[in-house]
Amino acid sequence: MRREPTLAEKLFWKALRKVEIPGSHFRRQAPFGPYIVDFVCHRHRLIVEVDGAVHDLDHIAARDLERQTWLEGRGYRVIRVPNSQAINDPYSAIEKILALVGADTPTPNPSPQGGGEP
């Protein structure tokens, strides 16, 4: 069942939408099998989870590991972003996404030499 996004998720989404990530279309609060993931890009098989302090509790961490194992078993990579990073420095997490997506994205051919103005 979907829930209201946390402040950290809202701020991360706002930052994520400002950055052009080649070939990416992220969905938020997306159903995925028996789960709802915070953010997913199916083209790059990438899931981003924004985690609050509750995820440090042993029983929650164990459930997160089970969930992550299930998601990775379907060929997706999972990036976990702590709330503090999503709120205070979301672009550092987005840089990690760019690095992962860049490895999946073909590099365009370079411009021909001499094509610019003198």
Task: Report on this structure.
InterPro entries: DUF559, Endonuclease_DUF559_bact, Restrct_endonuc-II-like. By secondary structure, the protein is α+β, with helices and mostly antiparallel strands. The protein has a single domain, classed as VSR Endonuclease (Endonuclease, Chain A, 3-Layer(aba) Sandwich). Helix content is 41%, strand content 21%. The protein is built from four helices and four strands. It has a four-stranded mixed beta sheet with strand order 1-2-3-4, with helices on both faces. The longest helix has 15 residues.
What does the secondary structure layout of this molecule look like, with pairings?
Layout: H1 7-18, E1 27-32, E2 35-41, E3 46-51, H2 58-72, E4 77-82, H3 83-88, H4 90-104
Parallel strand pairs: 3-4
Antiparallel strand pairs: 1-2, 2-3
What's the gyration radius in Å?
17 Å
Query: Strand sequence of the main sheet, in spatial order?
Result: 1-2-3-4
**Which word captures the global form?**
globular
Unreliable segments of 5+ consecutive residues: 105-112, 114-118
Short description:
With 118 residues, the protein is of the alpha+beta class. It is built from four helices and four strands; from the N terminus they run αβββαβαα.
Which characteristics define this entry?
single chain; four-stranded mixed sheet; disordered C terminus; Endonuclease, Chain A; 4 helices
